[in-house]
Amino acid sequence: MNAILAVVLISMFILAPLSIMLAVAKDNVIILIVSTIVTTIVHTTFWVTFGQYVAAGDREIFSLAIIYEFVTICGTLAAVIEGLELR
Question: Where are the beta strands (DSSP E) in the chain?
């Protein structure tokens, strides 16, 4: 895999959920929906691209990514519920 592509994908994996928090802070529902879709696409692309390494036995390296994924899912759900006032 190209190193530049890997760096960009890992950076987007980390930074994409922050756009959701920005949308909630600015109270903009359209940006919230768009950033949720972008975050979903980025995270799916990340796991499809790097899933072969996890399956090959490099689970130790990706254990932090799995924890971050769990926290991101919980944070995204909380932000969407807060932003769309579903509670």
Answer: none
